[in-house]
Amino acid sequence: MSEAQPEPASASDDSEARSDIPLLEMRSVNTHYGAVHALIDVDLSIFKGELVCLLGGNASGKSTTLKTLLGMLKPTSGEVVLDGEVVNDKPTSYRVARGVTMVPENRRLFKRLTVRENLDLGAYLRTDSDQIAADMERVFELFPRVKERLNQKAGTLSGGEQQMVAIGRALMSNPRVLLMDEPSMGLAPALVQQNFELIEQIHQAGMTVFMVEQNANMALSIADRGWVLQTGRVVLDDTAENLLAHPDLQASYLGTADQ
Amino acid sequence: MNTTLPPTTGPQPEAPRAAPRPAFTHDWRRIARMGSVAAFGQVFIALSNMPVRLDERLIVKPVLSLGYLVLLILPFAAGYRQGHQIKRENMPVCAPGPNEVVGGFLCGLITGGGLSLLAVLVTHFDLREPLVNWSPVLLDLLSFSNEMWFAVVIWLAIGAGMGAAGGVLRLLGPKSHRVVVTMALAVAGAAVLESLVVDVAEGLGLEPLTDRLYAPRGGVAWPSALGLAAVSGLLAVLGRGRFRQARVRHAQMEGAQRTRANLGLIIATAAVLIVLPLFAGKLTNELLANVGLFVLLALGLNVVVGLAGILDLGYVAFFAVGSYTAAVLTAATSPKIAPEMPWLVALIVVVIITGLVGLFIGAPVIRMRGDYLAIVTLGFGEIIRLLFLSDWLSGWFGGSQGITKIPGAGIFGITEVSGTDPRRVFYLVLAFCVVAIYISWRLERSRLGRAWMAVREDETVAEAMGINTVNVKLLAFVVGAVLGSFSGAIFAAKVGSVFPASFLILVSIVILVVVIFGGMGNIIGVIAGSAVLIGVLGGPKQPGLLAEFSEFKLLIYGALLIWMMLARPEGLIPSVRRTRELRQQEMAQDAWLRGQVDDDDAGGADGPRPAVQP
Q1: Contact residues for B101 (Cβ-Cβ < 8 A; gap 6+)
Q2: Domain spans in chain B, listed from the N-terminal domain onward
Q3: B62 prior amide bond cis, ω within 30
Q4: Is B460 on the interface with A (CB under 8 A)?
Q5: How many CB pairs below 8 A link A and B?
Q6: What is the C-alpha end-to-end distance of chain A, expressed in Å?
Q7: Which chain B residues are Cβ-neighbours of A148 within 8 angstroms?
Q8: Contact B468/A151, CB-based, under 8 Å?
Q9: Using the beta-carbon criterion (under 8 Å), do B603 and A190 form an inter-chain contact?
Q10: In what order do the strands lie in the sheet with B220-221?
Q11: Which CATH architecture has domain B256-574?
């Protein structure tokens, strides 16, 4: 968390920003969810400044991947690597403090707390109050509406505003990589569009984003690269354009996707 | 029932008034429903023997006893309530008229029908086996020692009369309404607070006044009741609702002004609490001390349940551990070890040991969630009590004999606080309450307090924010345990003996009821809750002002809780937080209903926003 926010310039060209060491990586990870083998030899690597997506249907292991990355589930074998350090045995708080933050599916704000309290909780592990205040201002710049609703209960906001607060809350931890769990879930189509614009906007500002989605068409339209997960295995790993054109994906997702 | 509750928001714009509704056009179904609910309530009260028991407590001598009051209040409330009109936007409110009176009359008639029917049934059937109060004595009570038909007629008449009276109350304008309510509250208050008032008046040398006010054997004497009503009515007329205005003004204050006003209120309350016991006798001080002990316990539980959202049904365990530890450390008669420490030194050990017990119990418990957690805490609460009771540990804690002859609490050798002097006990409790209130208040606004609230709202997301949920929840358990142990240590010194029977599961439940009743997560609500429940109705073993209620205490707790959930889900004194939330939801709903549906969700990106700001 001590690292400065990525400069917007560094993200303007992805190939340039891409360094040799991935920011966050999974090396042949196996995760069991109880007795169920939820992830099977999954390899993922997220580089600084990228916007990447993990696609998959229900029960394909998308959420398990996120939980494993965040440390809420422990892999049975393989390694989760954060910035060159194996963090298999480190708790969630350790990873959050080092820049991994999740925007949960369905936003899941602390509904009975105010918007301000929600944002403050995003910065829970930080002690640099000056920088926190500055980050809060940055969130307001990004989402002016959040500032208007600061003393309101998060539960009384509209869906779109809640999404803004959810992203703002995650940004308050000063993350280096933002994990987004199904940003399109439970939102009206117009709002999904707006939501993906938000994500792209944050990415443009230099944030590394890893999103997990069912809405393949939408996700691939803004992503650089992507993986397709099927019953716990990565079956496709390619650039967004190639994936969009891939016949298997066409058949299994895009034909039934809601666009 | 809602008449006495001031509105939480400022004065609302007067709705347009329409002509009174015709006298005989009614929502019959509503009348039948409210009437029969009240009738059911009356029959239930009669069969629970409440009227007979409560007959001993006079409100106005010799006209009205508490027993009859509980029977009469139901048709009155039903009659009043049925005249209630929901204020709808853009819909006129009909001016009250004969419709309300007729409706109240019918509602009350149905209510009275319940007891009439009961009288008939009691005469013809014998159900004494399951219903112990189903006896000629009940008939005697219902019929005022007359024939059965008299009971039938008289209860129909009484019900209809009270119901109509409730309807008539609707006819009064806001001014006379206020006067009537003030008069009723003054008389009822004087009757309920009788022993307290007499006690304090004695200390102030005002016996002649109370001798005149109250009849020799309890109850407000009827000439004084009339006088009191007249005086309070006059005051209400002269006051012109200033009290309510002040409340509304206070609710609307913000920033520094509000802080000043609150500070003034706190200083005034502190002054009363410090000065009052000096003039009050044993009874008042005992009562205040009991209320204070439960405030301490409830503040502790409030941290666990209200802030961290952990439903702990075994909270009495920490009270018990605190009491027993203090007893073992200070009493010379302690069976195994008797270090006979000074109380304050013992208190430090008590805090450490209870904190450890909190950790020990908390560690397995907090890994569970929701219902399972509640059940497990319930079990631990009982296990602790059974351990103190067991033969295994009777060498340490005396088993069912408990530990007796516990000395009072010595404070730096200046004074000794023991049960024989309730005034000192109260001051000690007050000091600890101040400490506990300060701790709770600071915690609520701290980083830890926010983490607790986050865990309460959504544990998984709280974890994803980097909050170590296990540690944070354990800490809530420990803080709650330590606050409860204060109460336990004082309890041991006050009562002078501890027995396992003092720590029944009922204590946990009463503390939880106090927290819920007062308003969860709200310090002032917790204090108000214990003042009303423990002070007026009485605690598990502590008599309250209405000692006659002790037999029906749990019944009344239950009824109060149900009413609370229906009418004021946010608690007696809702926290600012909760009120704001409820109001916002209402306004958001209003905005939605006006057709300004949220544009985000409807499709457009930047349409006009509904006015949902506080």
Answers
A1: B23, B164, B167, B168, B170, B171
A2: 17-250, 256-574, 578-614
A3: yes
A4: yes
A5: 100
A6: 38
A7: 613
A8: no
A9: yes
A10: B64-65, B58-61, B220-221
A11: Orthogonal Bundle (1.10)
Reported as a single tens digit per residue, the pLDDT across B284-330 is 888 999 999 999 999 999 999 989 989 999 999 999 999 999 999 98
Tokens read off for B155: 């209860």
Domain A20-99+177-259 class in CATH: alpha beta
The answer to whether B457 contacts A173, with C-beta atoms less than 8 Å apart, is no
Kindly give, in sequence order, each residue whose CB lies less than 8 Å from that of residue B161, ignoring residues fewer than 6 positions away: B108
Q: How far is C-alpha A142 from the chain's CA centre? A: 17
CA distances from A153 to A119, A157, A207, B182 (A): 12, 7, 28, 37
**Token pair for B258:** 């509000």
**Which of A156, A167, A146, A138 lies closest to A4, judged by CA?**
A138
Assign A148 a pLDDT band (cuts: 50, 70, 90): confident
ipTM score here?
A: 0.85
Interface of A with B in 131-160 (CB under 8 A): 148-149, 151-153, 155-156, 158-160
Q: Which residues of B491-501 are buried (b: 16+ CB within 10 A; e: fewer)?
A: bbbbbbbbbbe
Q: How confident is the model at residue B13 (pLDDT cuts 50, 70, 90)?
A: low
Show me where the domains of chain A are located. 20-99+177-259, 108-174
- Cβ–Cβ contact B594 with A under 8 A: no
CB B612 to CB A156 under 8 A? Answer: yes
CB of B187 closer than 8 Å to CB of B233? no
User: Mean pLDDT score of chain A, rounded to an integer?
Assistant: 85
> B468 and A91: CB-CB below 8 Å?
yes
* Closest chain B residue by Cα to residue A187: B601
CA–CA gap between residue B493 and residue B289 (Å, rounded)? 12
- Give the residue on A whose Cα is nearest the Cα of B598: A158
